[in-house]
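Board notes (copied after class):
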Amino acid sequence: MRPRQRLIERIRKRLLIRLAVGLTGVVLAMAAGAAIFVFWGVYNVSALQQHTEPVYTVLTTALDRSISQRAEEIDVPPLDQPDMQARGLSHYRDQCVQCHGAPGVARHDVGKGMTPVPPNLAHTARNRTSAEIFWAIKHGIKMTGMPSWQFIFKDEEIWDIVAFMRQMAVLSPADYQAMAASVNDQPEEAEASRRFPNADRGRLAMYGYACIACHRVPGLVGPQADVGPPLAGIGSRRYIAGVLSNNSDNMVRWLRDPTQVDPLTAMPDLNVTEQDANDIAAYLETLK
């Protein structure tokens, strides 16, 4: 290599080293700033302290893009059937009005005080695709208060809600009241035929039924509150709640009706469906 080329190469390497050192310094400074921001409690978590406009814009953009990307592969069924809209109104009235309101119907107190404020879903129905609405209802949106409904409603019932929301987008308050008055509560349908237990879905159900609110569960992120016993090693324990032999059938029995097994237990009845209980039992069995 000629002297001139060697000189150029040395200069290039020095510049790369300085650039790397500079970038490392910037990253470390940002990490230190973030640590100070978090541990000194700089950020105000009050629900009355709204996000700043730049933060709100970034979060909204991230939410929009996340939902649209994940909804692209969803096949939308026909939604213009009056019976679907009627069933959807019944579900919406029971579960959605509290936070989102309806035409001429205000949100309940809990919906008024949330940050960010739950959107007006008549507006949402005009600005989002049916697939995007379905995805948001089924999966929920973290850090907004919007829960996942997939352990409460079947997919068909979620589509009923989407069908009603499409109709609600053009309803006046008087139209909504008239439609609501004409809709009787829908009778409960029999549970779908059982399929093989799915441990992966059972893991998700631990979030869906808020099990993590009371139990420490290995690998699941939650408040780590020891209200109930930690579930590490539950798959290897001899007994469930000190009462039942630990097997799949008894675990399902316990999950579905804990007070029938032990009237003194603090474990509440979470209305776990039979299939969800089987899935959760399959997941808990993996926690050896």
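Comment from the instructor: The chain is about 55% helix and 0% strand. The chain has three domains: 1-33, 76-182, 199-284.
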